[in-house]
Amino acid sequence: MGVEMRMHIFFPALALVCLGLSGSTGSGALRGFGLFCLCVAAVFVRETARLIVAACFNLKLRAVLLLPIGGLFAYANPESQEAANKGSGEFAIALTGPVVNIITAFMIAAAAIGAGGDVQLLARPLVTPDHLVRSMVWMQAGLGLLHLLPAYPLDFGRLLRGNFARVHGLTPAGRAASGLGQLIAVAVMLAGWLVVHSPWLIIAGFFIMIGAQIEDQGVFFQSVVDTVHMREVMLTDFATLSPSDTLADALGRCVHSLQEDFPVVRGPQLVGIVSRQRIVEALRNDGNGYIQGIMSRAFQVARPEDTLGTTIRRISAGHGLSLIPVTESGKVIGIVSVQNLMTSMSLLSEQRRLESEEASE
Fold first, then answer.
1. I need a surface site. Which of 18, 65, 202, 342 has the fewest CB within 10 A?
2. Within a 10 A sphere around the Cβ of 298, how many other Cβ atoms?
3. Is 297 exposed, middle or buried, given 0-12, 13-18 or 19+ CB atoms closer than 10 A?
């Protein structure tokens, strides 16, 4: 569906837990791996359904980070994220995951009972490598029921955050929901350890904690970058190229510059962007030519008063572009690139610290 799928490093590590519950040799290892595959299937079912619902609401996603408790969405642009937070799409997506998992569980149970075998769906333990059919049912049902908890980033936790955000703002709501999610995660782990004696509840609580921390870091990062403006981090000492420059001349300019990407200007007007790598590749493959023949005309521009958060979202939605020119009255007055962004942010932080110390003296 055009969405990048990423898997958290701890997700494959769950396979080791499944092997540990079943034994590491012979048929036990095969059943343990099968149990892990059932967990992957449960996540796959819910995330596929959520992606379809997101597409129905015209919400554009850039990536989904997969955890054993489900996926964390990263939206492709601010408009989609705002529409998801404020519109009915958020409720539909949050409802889709649990409903699809529970319906799938009922369908598998009905098929197993209808086949006439000795299924014993209510026997304990509910999820075990020794009975994969029963585990298939309860893995689906358990994942669906888990998301009814008001723990962010679970589905109903997201609804809780959305309602809180409409009153108090997105950043305070995100921090509060993430904190609540971590508290519920601890409670789930303790219940699994002391009350129910279920390793699966402990695992679920552990991954709720990880998901809440990931979201908390994202909210914190967003709150920081939204206070920084482009004029504070843009490079003002930069080189430009002309569309009439030859590739050989441009390569000579590249030798004496640390830039990886160059704005291409005709007079004061920005007409394209070209990278050092693109220049070298064109010279190797096609020989000398002109910049206008290889420059990219698909680019984003920023204004000096734009926030860094807005610019980062433009870079991430820019289909591989790593540079955004900053323009004022149609003239390029600075550039922001991934290459220099972290250095500029570090220096800006140090500058603000020194200014704060001078103000307090």
1. 342
2. 10
3. exposed
Residue that the structure tokens 């569309």 belong to: 243
Contacts of 51 (CB under 8 A, 6+ apart): 1, 3, 61, 64
Q: Which two tokens stand for residue 120?
A: 């014993």
User: If you write DSSP's letter for every residue of 217-282 in order, what string do you get?
Assistant: HHHHHHHHHTT-BHHHH-BSS---B-TTSBHHHHHHHHHT---SEEEEEETTEEEEEEEHHHHHHH
What DSSP assignment string belongs to 156-213? HHHHHHHHHHHHH-HHHHHHHHHHHHHHHHHHHHHIIIIIS--HHHHHHHHHHHHHHH
Rounded to 5°, the CA angle 60-148-110 comes to 95
For 186-233, what is each residue's pLDDT tens digit? Answer: 999 999 999 888 888 999 999 999 988 887 676 666 666 777 888 888
State which CATH number among 2.60.120.10, 2.40.160.20, 2.30.30.240, 3.10.580.10 fits the domain covering 230-360: 3.10.580.10
Q: What is the DSSP letter of 291?
A: G
Predicted TM-score (pTM) of this structure: 0.65
Question: Cα separation of 144 and 96, whole Å?
Answer: 10
User: pLDDT (tens digit, 9 = 90+) per residue, 5-55?
Assistant: 888 888 888 888 888 877 655 677 888 899 999 999 999 999 999 999 988
Specify the domain boundaries for CATH 3.10.580.10 within the chain.
230-360
